[in-house]
């Protein structure tokens, strides 16, 4: 009888704890970076930068594969490939002749272009995007830890970590919530996720330290900023670039 009572109590404890369970910090982003599909159809709100970011690719590589030149204008309904015809043909059969013909895309005046211009390559001076304790660090091997998480209060100011051009401002990337991506030069991009409000729009130039958003919890479970730096499309440890506290 005593054994049965103990088992009953343990069962209730397990059930009760389950309703309060919270995913570990950073775990909710484990699947945020998706494998690129064969073809992606451009949607409203997309930019070449946000699409490349979603699939962990360099925007210059995606542009080259699809024959897109600066200022990297794409259109709603346009099909983007992530592998060149040459790569695809070599994997299927060697007897099929390789073609590099660009897929036909109808351009009409009724389509609204989603454009960005190339920023000049300048030496970057980085600064902290927000003040607060670091609650999750970068990991090259662990999924979902491709940047750092900084805790803060709702509505706290988020600033640009370096000067550059806003190439994405929206909420179209899964698990990033309200997101801003800034292009600093041809190699470096930075991202600011989970914001409560976005204060800058695409194609705006921002200075280092300029207020760009308000801290929030969109796409996550607590008030925090998820901050990433990517070099040539690949995540790097932000702590290598940010000044020591």
What does this structure look like?
- The structure is a single chain.
- The chain is of the alpha+beta class and 245 residues long.
- It has helices spanning 2-19, 48-54, 59-65, 85-92, and strands at residues 39-41, 74-75, 79-81, 113-114, 134-136, 148-151, 157-159, 164-170, 178-183, 188-195, 197-198, 205-206, 211-214, 224-231, 234-236.
- Strands 5, 6, 8, 9, 10, 12, 14 and 15 form an eight-stranded antiparallel β-sheet that branches. A three-stranded antiparallel β-sheet has the order 7-13-11, with no helix packed on it.
- It is globular.
- The protein starts with a helix and ends in a 9-residue tail after the last strand.
State the name of the first-level CATH class of the largest domain: Mainly Beta
- Computed Rg: 22 Å
Task: Give unreliable regions as ranges.
Answer: 3-31, 87-120
Shape: globular
The helix fraction, in percent, is: 10-25%
Give the strand content. Answer: 15-25%
How many distinct helices? 4
CATH architecture designation of the largest domain: Distorted Sandwich
Look at the structure and give the mean pLDDT.
Answer: 78
Please identify which CATH superfamily of the largest domain we are dealing with: Glucose Permease (Domain IIA)
Q: Largest beta sheet, briefly?
A: 8 strands, antiparallel
The helix/strand series, from N terminus to C terminus, equals HEHHEEHEEEEEEEEEEEE
**Per CATH, what is the topology of the largest domain?**
Glucose Permease (Domain IIA)
Q: How many beta strands in the DSSP annotation?
A: 15
Number of domains: 2
* N-to-C span: 59 Å
> What's the oligomerization state?
single chain
Helices and strands: which structural class? alpha+beta
């Amino acid at each position: 009888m005593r054994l049965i009572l103990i088992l009953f109590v343990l069962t209730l404890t397990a059930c009760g704890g389950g309703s309060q369970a919270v995913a570990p910090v950073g775990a909710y982003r484990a699947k945020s970076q998706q494998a690129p599909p064969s073809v992606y159809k451009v949607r409203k709100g997309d930019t070449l930068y946000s699409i490349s970011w979603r699939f962990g690719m360099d925007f210059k590589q995606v542009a080259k594969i699809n024959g897109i030149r600066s200022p990297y204008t794409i259109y709603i309904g346009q099909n983007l490939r992530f592998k060149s015809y040459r790569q695809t043909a070599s994997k299927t059969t060697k007897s099929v002749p390789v073609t590099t013909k660009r897929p036909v895309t109808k351009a009409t005046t009724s389509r609204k272009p989603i454009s960005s211009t190339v920023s000049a390559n300048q030496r970057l001076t980085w600064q902290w995007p927000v003040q607060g304790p670091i609650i999750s660090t970068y990991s090259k091997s662990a999924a979902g830890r491709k940047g750092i998480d900084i805790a803060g209060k709702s509505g706290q100011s988020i600033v640009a970590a370096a000067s550059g051009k806003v190439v994405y401002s929206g909420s179209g990337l899964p698990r990033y919530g309200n997101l801003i991506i800034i292009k600093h030069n041809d190699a470096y991009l930075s991202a600011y996720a989970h914001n409560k409000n976005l204060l800058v729009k695409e194609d705006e130039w921002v200075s280092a330290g300029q207020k760009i958003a308000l801290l929030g919890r969109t796409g996550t479970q607590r008030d925090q900023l998820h901050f990433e730096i990517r070099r040539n499309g690949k995540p790097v440890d932000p702590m290598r670039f940010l000044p020591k506290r």
